[in-house]
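In the previous chapter we treated chains in isolation. Here, by contrast, the input contains two separate entities that must be folded as one system, with a combined length of 865 residues.
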Amino acid sequence: MFGNLSDRLSDTFKNLRGKGRLSASDIDATLRDIRRALLEADVALEVVKSFIAAIRERALGDEVSKALNPAQQVVQIVNDELTKILGRENKRIQFAKSPPTVIMLAGLQGSGKTTLAGKLAKWLKEQNQTPILVAADLQRPNAVTQLQILGEKVGVPVFAPESGNGVGDPITVAKDAIAHAKKAQFSVVIVDTAGRLGIDEEMMQQAIGIRDAVSPDEILFVVDSMLGQDAVNVAKAFKDGVGVTGVVLTKLDGDSRGGAALSVANITGAPILFSSTGEDLDSFEPFYPERMASRILDMGDVVSLIEQAQKTFDEEESKKLADKIANDEFTLQDFLEQMQQLRKMGNMKSLLGMLPGAGKMKQQLEDFDESEIARTEAIIFSMTPLERNGPKVLNGSRRMRIAKGSGTSVTEVNQLVNRFEQAAKVMKTMSKGGMPNIPGTNPVTMGGAVGGGYIGGKKSTTKKKGSKSGNPAKRAAENQGLGFSQPQESKPGSAFGLRN
Amino acid sequence: MFKFLKRLRGKDVDASSPVEENQPAAVIEVLPGSDLPSYAPAPSETETESGTEATVAQSGTRTDEKEIAKPDLVSVELPKRSLGTGIRSLFSGAMDIDGLEDILILADFGVETAEEIAAELRGEANRQGVTTDPELRLLLKDLLAKRLSRNDSALNLDDGTLPYVILVVGVNGAGKTTTIGKLARWLKDGEWEVVLGAADTYRAAAVDQLETWAKRADSPIVKPVKEGADPASVAYQTVEMAIRTQADIAIIDTAGRLQNKKDLMDELGKIRRAVEKQAKISEVLLVIDATNGQNAMSQARAFAEVAEVTGIVMTKLDGTAKGGILYSLQKELNLPIKLVGVGEQINDFAFFSPEEFAKGLVAKK
């Protein structure tokens, strides 16, 4: 029924791709599709209008008609314009010249400010800052308690002189917090404030009061990425009310199409600094406009993936492993080690979501049960070293023993062995720079084999890139063939998969 | 406005037998037991007093404290609550029929629905020869009100299978806990006995937040023994307590979860099953933030499938969001909007009234 924005645009472009030259009516038809896709992705109407106008102007210009591949050109333009709205370069948080740097959080109720405060504190601590959290949400029942618990979890002190629940003056709290932070030499002060509606004069006045009391270096506007058309009104109200120096997008791990990001960036003119992608306190990362645009266009978020991988993977170890794979020495033991490494890397789903072309398998990714890994682990743990290093010795009675030992069934053991053999084959091909396209190697259903696919692929990433089409849509399509044998859902004639 | 069935609290009611006029906030009338299908051995055409004895005599459980005797029921009519000025008009100036589609899109009706409504209104206006601004507004109001009206928008608190269990679900930050607080207070005001269950064992201080609301609503709360405890067991204990204390209603708060997290969604199924071991679930309310756009559809679809949602609560309608998505939620997914939230205060909520909603949308500023 609904795909996400990336799916829709890639469908639109697929229709364009077949053509050598584009007529004005082709472009108009495409733009209509794009308009609709953006609207259904909750991009605000006024933003859509200006976006479409900009694209039309460029698309009808010489740029496209003279281009060798006009469709590719339109994609490029859409990508450019998306990136332009989202902010071209990635901005960083502004630290004050003389500490403490004061960061104030503001936003609607339920946008995720308090949780974000905890994540931000953790992140800052990892950047060798000494943050302190300030509980200035005295409105919502037990917001103060919530912040205190989060502070404790991330090991950051919380300044909370008032217990909240409607008692106390947030402005006084904020003022005292700054004095306290200066005296105790904290480097960053994070002020959590109550959720408020843009039209609530009194509450907006209070926010201004807090702002004036702490003179923040950053006023971060915390926005739920599921926000609809109202994003425009809300963004305007906060921009004109308390002011906004940066935006944080929350709940990006949901299946919302994230149109609010475009709207808010466009209306506030402030950079999107961070995105928040899950409930645990690590699910927080700097926002990269190009990546977001690419993600919207389904070109994948390879850069994030690699960065995250580098954090965890030991270069040398990976090389060793890649050699093993190439020489056909890859064993279940390696398979297990990889899986454990991969787990270290964090949530499997968000990891896989970064792969190019993964947009289409998002749902499958979400359905993927992480406990599957645990089961796979259990099975391998139940094997002897001999079996792990040479699965060929696994006969019926060995399999039976393993199944019993791991609390699984023989069928599951068989499945794992089959998957492993397939995966080993795939990886061997990939490590040689080939393009495996073996049905049934979908990493999701393959369970643990994902790790293998990744490592093998990593070594040859650059090589593969060179061989790929410069056309993002085509590339996405290629990538989809890259082991993710996902059935094409779109039917001709309904480029957007719209409900009819 | 809506009729509900609640437990007849024996002694109090007996003492001041015809309760009807005594309660300005809630009109109570005694019902013949025959109206209650779930009440097998109910005496027909007898008033409650004799009904009590008949029921008890037949089931013979008066002396047995552990086995709960079937309660006597009264029909209650609760005062109508108005949206007030919660809904903001779609139109800042005169109504422009050509611009209607865009205006509906801006109100989060969604592209397709907006096109459909705009086309229909245009057709209807032509047919009726309506051209003036007030006439067009009236036409649009009628069209919306008619399409939004349905007969299942009351809370399911009328089948007599006490305690009624209400499960409250939704994504993070939608306003579940606040909604429960308001609902509990309102029921309490109508002299219902409510038990709250804090099955949001995940988010920091969620239990404390509900506890604060429980105090405000003067209702007991069942809390998990520790953070991260099994929400299903909290739900189970909540129902258990409701049965033990002969409460009318158990309202269970759940942790916010994004609809695409399969494992978290599956947990809702587990909570459901835990509750159903002891009681029927009367109502699964999905709380949706009115500022959300089209993603609300995805939320509703997923929650309806997993948690068997029976009604929707639209929160934060007091902001600038128009909540147009509720139209598609009702029409496309066939889920009734039951309640709306219009502020942070304990009384800031109302039953959803299509007429009021439509009126608010077309109102002249």
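The domain at 304-467 of chain A is CATH 1.10.260.30 (434 Repressor (Amino-terminal Domain)). Confidence is low (pLDDT under 50) at residues 298-306, 434-500 of chain A. Compare these points with the single-chain example from earlier in the chapter.
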